[in-house]
Amino acid sequence: MITPTKTRQIVLASRPQGWPTPENFRLETIELPAPADGQVVVANHYMSVDPYMRGRMNDVKSYAPPFQVDRPLDGAAVGEVIVSASPDVHIGQIVLHGLGWREHAVVPATAVTVVDAVAAPESAYLSVLGMTGLTAYAGLMAAARFRPGDTVFVSGAAGAVGSLVGQIAKLSGAARVIGSAGSPAKVARLRELGFDAAFNYHDGPVADQLRAAAPDGIDVYFDNVGGDHLEAAIDSLNNGGHVALCGAISQYNSTEPPAAPRNLALAIGKQLTLQGFLVGGHRDLMPEFHEKVVGWLADGSLRWDETVRKGLDAAPQAFIDLLAGANTGKMVVRL
Q: Which of 86, 141, 181, 193 could be stapled to 109 by a disulfide with Cβ–Cβ 3.0 to 4.6 Å?
């Protein structure tokens, strides 16, 4: 393979105010540097766009450093090593790393993970076999303290994480799994994936629809949305219930403070546990997670969806569309 001398990348052109727009991004062509000792050059095949990236576009302190204006964005990507200056990673290997939003990445060999592209499609390592899958598993099992027999409610349930949470709960012995989504097609897909009930949050108040779907209450709420979904879940949670706070996508582009939840005082009398979590704090669960997921994938009991956009040029709009709920399953960009 001929190593290119130039490559393209997406940089943050400006910080969004509210919803991101295409003008917040800029496509640049740059010289591709040669790798230093211990580095590899990766031709990216797939890159991930994720909701958490919206928070990194703000210049505020958080669990992940903010993106810098006029600098390339980053995120999970998978691709082929085309140049190696490391004895540990070889040309032709498929690797997972953290320098997406560009067609080629120069990465320390210590910062890549070699993956088996024969055992599973490359994009699976950005989704069901990667941090997305571990987020679903760790959030349900560790943060939400799931127990067989629980009734589980998942918001944003047709998304990359939510769709896996519901299936893992069912496969692990949940009595009932309920999901919310934003379109009739997504609701239908949740039922195909084995959710016992699903509703479109555009069809009426979330609290009313959740009560109808779970008349005996819920024991676990996996929160990807925040706002009115969290308020509804607090209403429906049984005494001693658990909430895994994974995301709050309903608030990421807000310019005003959220109005909900307004019923947080109920958490006292119900003795609820609301547990925020980050997937990086649960890497110890990766072997357990991987063993179970590989088995479920092999026997067909776990299914995963992805929405694929083509070309680096499409990445900014893919990210904007992700925040608007245009994806079913994992949103990835094929480069």
A: 86
Question: Amino acid letter at 271?
Answer: Q
Superfamily of domain 6-127+305-334: Medium-chain alcohol dehydrogenases, catalytic domain (3.90.180.10)
Is the model's pTM score more than 0.90? Answer: yes
Q: Where residue 174 falls among pLDDT bands split at 50, 70, 90?
A: very high
Distance CA 159, CA 182 (A): 10
Amino acid symbol at 314:
A
Closest listed residue to residue 73, CA positions, set 38, 47, 35 = 47
User: CA–CA separation, 295 vs 104, rounded Å?
Assistant: 33
Give yes or no for a contact between 96 and 125, defined as CB atoms under 8 angstroms apart: yes
Q: pLDDT-based confidence at 61, cuts 50/70/90?
A: confident
Please list the residue range(s) of the chain that carry CATH number 3.90.180.10.
6-127+305-334
Give a three-class secondary structure readout of 252-309: CCCCCCCCCCCCCCHHHHCCCEEEECCHHHHHHHHHHHHHHHHHHHHCCCCCCCEEEE
CATH superfamily of 131-280: NAD(P)-binding Rossmann-like Domain (3.40.50.720)
